[in-house]
Amino acid sequence: MRIDKSKFFGKSITKVIKNDDGEEIGFIFNSLKGKDMDLFLGMQNANDTETQKRAMEILFNKVVKDNIPDATDEDIKNFSLNFFLQAIEGIMEVNGLSDKDTEELKRKYGQR
Predict the structure, then answer these.
(1) In the chain, pLDDT over 70 holds for what percent of residues?
(2) Secondary structure of 30-97 in HEC code, one letter for each residue
(3) I need a labelling partner for 29 at 20 to 30 A (CA). Which of 55, 64, 91, 111 fits?
(4) Which residues contact residue 37 at a Cβ distance below 8 angstroms, ignoring those fewer than 6 apart?
């Protein structure tokens, strides 16, 4: 019996994110892949906040570029912290990370 390899490519979810004006926007979040392992481990590295911050920025940029292909790096740098935190929550949710992990990141990087 052969197993369909596509069953292991991960999943996607659509999550509603609110901008600072309260407008709801559907964003697609994809599961991290094996090639993203360094970013995942960096995000979980509680002892090195610089590595953790950089990994989250890279993942955030990836999500934004997947959903808003014409967004420039400068645009992304100017997105609100509120939007950033919601996007990180989406990344964590699609990858099955715990609410505890999400709450810890909110505590570290600011509340919504």
Answers:
(1) 80
(2) ECCCHHHHHHHHHHHCCCCHHHHHHHHHHHHHHHHHHHCCCCCHHHHHCCCHHHHHHHHHHHHHHCCC
(3) 111
(4) none
Instruction: Report helix, strand or coil for 100.
Output: helix
Helix 49-67 with 81-94: angle, nearest 10 deg? 90
User: 16: number of CA atoms within 13 Å, CB side?
Assistant: 4
Model confidence pLDDT, tens digit, residues 72-97 = 999 999 999 999 889 988 988 888 87
User: Rounded to an integer, what is the distance from CA 106 to the centroid of its chain?
Assistant: 13
**CA-to-CA distance for 38 and 54, rounded, in angstroms?**
11
Q: Which residues are CB-contacts of 75 (< 8 A; sequence separation ≥ 6)?
A: 68
For the ranges 32-41, 66-75, 80-89, which has the lowest average pLDDT?
A: 32-41
**Residue 86 near residue 18, CB atoms below 8 Å:** yes
